[in-house]
């Protein structure tokens, strides 16, 4: 029978001081919290590789951890540099071609299309707004294209700044990852010692965090990669720059509900309006049947490791996670839901007799 702990006034002071110190520590690391959490999650994914290095060199923990970080760098950074260079090249070429198309009468050709003319007539007839004039719209688009051309330097500088921030965050994450891998046994032992739970409850909580972290990363990022590859193939066959638009589809797949439709619907409309009806139909069918099925089948399959989380809960955890935390919310959302469910299960076990008595009363 466990001994009951008597809470004294000194205990209360200690708990308040500990909470205050904890909040202060959080405020100190808050700008870097995403890097720290990503290091924790990636440590779970990299742990099998790290265990292999540890098995080969059991007395050299620092070297084993360093080699694991180097492997991760070659897996992520090196391919990303090549992809980023190709995206910048294709994106720049696409911007130049779009500017030429707009300034050489492409917009006028589109607005002269019978479907567009009929659509504008219907809008002007039924909508309670001022008449929509095709000529004024064409002029506005031309101005935007001119502004895009003049702002390419600023856009390129922002992209370069974002890439620099990514590299800084990545190397900070590597620094944290090194210590998480090297001292993983001590960290887990300290967490187990501090948590006021039984060993079985601790196992359940830690196992669920590991399971959901892996499934969230695999479900979100592998689905994005698969949709980006499939979407890039479809765009390439339809005559668009492959890598650039495939990458855009991969990023768009992170957005719940609309997802890759943000990319392929405008592309399909562009093909229709420029007379490429066959390729427009092909791209729409390909995007719905192939790219869409990846999201509907692969993501739920990869995320089914989340204990007792049905599709509806996964959907809201992703949607709410993005709303609160941005892109990283694709991991935070499911993780918060899963931890909450585990805590509910522990609560149900601890108060089972009371809850059963309430049900029977």
Give me the secondary-structure topology.
Blueprint: H1 9-29, H2 33-56, H3 61-103, H4 106-111, H5 114-126, H6 134-150, H7 152-182, H8 184-194, H9 199-237, H10 242-252, H11 261-273, H12 277-302, H13 311-325, H14 329-350, H15 352-360
Explain the overall architecture:
The chain is an all-alpha fold. The chain folds into 2 domains: 32-194, no CATH class; 196-351. Helix content is 83%, strand content 0%. The chain is built from 15 helices and no strands. Helix 2 (33-56) crosses helix 3, helix 3 (61-103) packs across helix 6 and helix 9 (199-237) packs antiparallel against helix 10 (242-252). The chain crosses the membrane at residues 12-29, 35-53, 65-88, 163-181, 216-237, 243-265, 277-294, 314-347. One of its GO terms (cellular component) is membrane. InterPro entries: AI-2E-like. It is found in: Membrane. It is a multi-pass membrane protein.
């Amino acid at each position: 029978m466990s001994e009951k702990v008597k809470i004294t006034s000194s205990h209360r002071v200690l708990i308040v001081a500990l909470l205050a110190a904890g909040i202060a520590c959080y405020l100190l690391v808050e700008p870097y919290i995403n890097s720290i959490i990503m290091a924790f999650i990636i440590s779970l994914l990299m742990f099998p590789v790290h265990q292999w290095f540890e098995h080969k060199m059991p007395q050299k923990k620092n070297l084993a951890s360093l080699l694991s970080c180097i492997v991760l760098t070659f897996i992520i950074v090196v391919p990303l540099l090549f992809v980023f260079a190709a995206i910048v090249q294709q994106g720049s070429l696409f911007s130049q071609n779009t500017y030429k198309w707009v300034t050489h009468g492409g917009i006028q050709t589109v607005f002269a299309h019978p479907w567009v003319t009929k659509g504008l007539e219907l809008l002007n007839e039924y909508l309670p707004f001022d008449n929509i004039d095709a000529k004024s719209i064409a002029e506005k688009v031309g101005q935007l294209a001119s502004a895009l051309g003049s702002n390419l330097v600023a856009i390129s500088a922002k992209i370069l700044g974002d890439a620099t921030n990514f590299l800084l965050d990545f190397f900070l994450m590597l620094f944290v990852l090194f210590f998480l891998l090297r001292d993983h046994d001590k960290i887990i032992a300290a967490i187990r010692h501090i948590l006021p739970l039984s060993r079985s409850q601790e196992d359940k909580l830690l196992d669920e965090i590991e399971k959901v972290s892996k499934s969230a990363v695999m479900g979100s990022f592998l689905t994005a990669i698969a949709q980006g590859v499939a979407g890039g193939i479809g765009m390439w066959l339809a005559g668009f720059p492959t890598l650039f638009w495939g990458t855009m589809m991969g990023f768009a797949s992170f957005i719940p509900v609309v997802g890759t439709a943000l990319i392929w619907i405008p592309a399909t409309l562009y093909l229709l309006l420029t007379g490429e009806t066959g390729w427009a139909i092909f791209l729409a069918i390909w995007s719905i049947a192939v790219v869409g099925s990846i999201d509907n089948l692969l993501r739920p399959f990869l995320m089914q490791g989340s204990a007792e989380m049905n599709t509806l809960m996964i959907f809201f955890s992703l949607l709410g996670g993005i709303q609160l935390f941005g892109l990283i919310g694709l991991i935070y959302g499911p993780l918060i839901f899963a931890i909450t469910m585990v805590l509910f299960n522990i609560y149900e076990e601890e108060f089972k007799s009371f809850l059963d008595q309430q049900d029977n009363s």
